[in-house]
Amino acid sequence: MSTIPPHLRLRARGATSNAAGRFERQQRESFDDGWDMAEDERPATTDIRLEVPRSALVWNSSPDLFFDRSINPYRGCEHGCIYCFARPTHAYLGLSPGLDFETRLIARPGIGAVLDRELRRKGYSPAPIGIGTNTDPYQPCERDHRVMREVMEVLAAFRHPVGITTKGTLVERDLDLLAPMAAQGLVGVGISMTTLDPGLSRRLEPRAPAPARRLETIRRLTAAGVPVRAMIAPVIPGLTDHELEPLLQAARDAGARNASYIGLRLPMEVAGLFRDWLATHEPGKAAHVMGRVREWHGGKDYDANFGIRMKGQGIWSDLLSRRFATATRRLGLTAPPAKFRNDLFRPPPRAGDQLGLFDAP
Question: What is the 3-state secondary structure (H, E, C) of 200-217?
Answer without folding.
Answer: HHHHHCCCCCCHHHHHHH
